[in-house]
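sorry for the late reply, my laptop died twice this morning and i had to redo everyting from scratch. anyway the thing you sent over, i finally got around to it. pasting the sequence first so we're on the same page, its 289 residues, then the predicted structure underneath. double check i copied it right bc i was rushing
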Amino acid sequence: MGKSTGTAPIPNIAPCQITLLLLNMTLPQHTDHRIRYQQQVDNAREYVLPFIESAMAVTASTEVLDIGCGEGGVLIPFLEKGCSVVGIELDEMKSGHARNLLAAFIADGKAEVVNQNIYDEAALERFSARFDLIILKDVIEHIPDQERFIPYLKKFLKPGGQIFFGFPPWYMPHGGHQQVCEGRVLSMLPWFHLLPTPLYRGLLKVAGEPEGVIRDLLEVKSTGISIERFERIVKKSGYTIPLKRFYLINPIYEFKFGVKGREQWKLVSAIPFIRNFLTTCVYYIVKTR
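ok and here's the structure:
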């Protein structure tokens, strides 16, 4: 499968230019699940899998769990390597799309898509201590009570298993996921998700955003996670962090907007708190001690 960015690559673009670029672009992936799927495939193939392979071997014997798998595209590069995979997705529509898009692998017995809450007792009974690798790509920032959830993941890992996390830090320019706003101006407005909740909600209402969009954005606001809080939870939960990588420009932008992913400057990455405002994506591998 080839890349399907829909735009020509734009070299040497500065991060502050991204918002200006987006003002002149529509985001078809918000309404077309096949585009989202292909972007997931391309990003996982070019960035996620190589990052994971720099920390662990991924072979045909590797068993993979993707939590919040969406349309299932992240799993494709692992299936191409012969891995057995399970995608678990709470959204019934997305899990249906994933089953359709992964139908050939499901028929072959290499993939399974489950529409279930990871906290369900049935999920724990079925998948306990089964996986070498758990993937959470753009998921942890949506999950409430992360202090409970992150240590809970150990239940699904084999001894020596590892977890990949990739997410946008809460304080980054669009860390509130405001790109889903229907109003063009708000969808491109950086950092306004950091307003106090009553002002944030009020602005969304005055701008005419639908109640469903407002609800989703307030959910992200209640669960958004910073780099520092993520690392504190991970370490408190008994994990180590053998590998991490910060991005000035999120790798997924290559497939959404034609803007090449770029790692964060090391000096910025080393400055606590400030780095959150200038880092659009972080990748982590964590493992139990």
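The two ends are 38 Å apart (CA to CA).
thats about all i looked at so far, will dig more tmrw
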